[in-house]
Amino acid sequence: MIESNFRELAVAHRDEIISVRRHLHQYPELGFREQLTSAFVADALTRLGLSVRQGVAGTGVVALLETGRPGPCLAVRADMDALPLTEATGLPFASQHDGVMHACCHDGHMAMVLGAARMLTAAREELCGTVKFIFQPAEEMLGGARHMVEAGVLESPRVDGIVGLHLWPDLATGRFGVRPGTVMASMDHVDITVHGKAGHGAAPHQGVDAILAAAHVLAALQALVSRESDPAEPVVLSMGSIRGGSLPNIIADRVEIRGTVRAVSSEAREHMQRRIAALAEAVAGGLNARAEVAYELGYPPTVNDPGLIRRAEASLLNLFGQEAVAPLDRSPMTSEDMAFYMEQVPGAFLLVGAKGAGEGNYPLHHPQMTIDERALEYGAAFLAEFARDFLRTR
Ligand SMILES: [Zn+2]
Ligand SMILES: [Zn+2]
């Protein structure tokens, strides 16, 4: 059998992949409200002849490419939601939906997975087992992936491995950011309420100053990063909001501090969770105030399976040569709900370079963020190649 050349096929499908991305870019939708988007995706998958399920975890879409031959099941995942931003790129295909923009490239993720679905469907004779295409809602903050897992997308057939991509405007087009182990940080939220006792500013000894206690709590918490965390393993604690007090001459009885906590290992994450509460309570207590700490678990770290990353590298070498592999020396401190699948099954999550000559000047989530659309054909070719490797060699 002559094998499909996915690199050449992706180039041949370039215009279609780009037009899919541009269409989706024009009609972005927020998390769990991806009605038009999921209908478009389901229609494209149905036209390929795949069996398609809609309405999974709300707006999710799952499609199966069944070869009829026994073998493993590989899931290929894309996210569908956009961000509450007003686009300022000035592109001819800019968002038509006021205040909503695909500023995190999820339009491109869908276009790449649909491109791969098309190539793999045409090449089904070269595969055994099953490819499961997962289009999930609400990656941004809402954890759509967790809802998909709870809805059973990793079962029937049971998924043996999962692959996903994130377009990356910081990395040159044609290169893939690859990292065994942690590739995205965890993301949790912490709310600290410091309770004091109101009083007259002229008689501080009769009250308990929640503002002073909160200031000491804030400063002390950074010691968890600088003194208790392994310097070789990044941890971030950013307190982005503080509110309290009313007038300059009144002792405040209540201050609220809110922040985000990021770590690259579960151990560091658990350490921060435990110690933020203990330290805030102790410091506030030492000043006669009281701290109440609510720690909300967000996304776990996204941890690549070393074996699957070796296979991904082999697929990249095969397709594009050594140049395509860009080893990441550290994990970005951004996070991904892809982590929820990868807690359950081995996974590979790679970054796809999308920085062309004029692109990449703005980061993800920026209203002027643009990508080099040539990145899409690289991503689609990789997904198809990786799927064939996975479903052939296991
Ligand atoms: Zn994002
Ligand atoms: Zn994203």
Automatic annotation (TrEMBL):
Q: Which UniProt keywords apply?
A: Hydrolase, Manganese, Metal-binding
Q: How is the cofactor bound?
A: The Mn(2+) ion enhances activity.
**PANTHER family for this protein:** METALLOPEPTIDASE, PUTATIVE (AFU_ORTHOLOGUE AFUA_6G09600)-RELATED (PTHR11014:SF63), PEPTIDASE M20 FAMILY MEMBER (PTHR11014)
- Species of origin: Paenibacillus faecis
Query: Per its record, how is this protein called by name?
Result: Amidohydrolase
Q: Where does the Peptidase M20 dimerisation domain start and stop, copy by copy?
A: 190-284
Which cofactors, if any, are listed as required? Mn(2+)
Superkingdom is Bacteria
